[in-house]
Amino acid sequence: MDPHAVLGISAAASPREVAEAYRALAKRWHPDRAGASGEARMVQINAAYEVLRGGVVCVPAAERTTARPRAMAGAWLDEATRRSLGRELLQALEREEAIALVVRAATWASPDTVLTVTDRRLLWLLDDAVTNRVRSVRFRDVERVGHRPAWPRRRDRATVRVQPRYGRRWEFTDLDPVTAERIVVATRRGNA
Questions:
Q1: Cα separations (Å) of 160 from 21, 122, 145, 148?
Q2: Residue 182 maps to which CATH number?
Q3: Tell me, what's the pLDDT at 71?
Q4: Three-state DSSP class for 97?
């Protein structure tokens, strides 16, 4: 998707021109005004605006074919690990970042979360979120980490609480108790 084409502006458009084009298209295609037919178009308009507003540079398809092929994200990992991580988490990995564990969990923000323990940080994907889906906290930035049985008290499920030095606490629930212990141990070891 070329965000400039979606918004109907040139690649040299200023941030002000981008915002004006977005507002004009949003007024025209908003589902309240355009009905059900405007929903799909509005999704494209919002995505294009987010890309341009975030400073992400999009390379047109014609230029992509002549560019040097990029290395596959997570090329150092085995195929099963790459498949379990998915595209978004693979793109969030740092070069040569080793994966210790990939597990499904739940958080207050998303009942379907993919939690990954790497050699450097906790990395997770809020699978049903619309934006800001990938989050992480480095081990060195973790102030406290611990686990407890899930509420209501269930022996077969556990919750891991992670308190970063800065920011809000995260709780990963619906975990196997042994997996929860592995996450806590890896986080403490990485923090040492």
A1: 45, 12, 7, 7
A2: 2.30.29.30
A3: 66
A4: coil
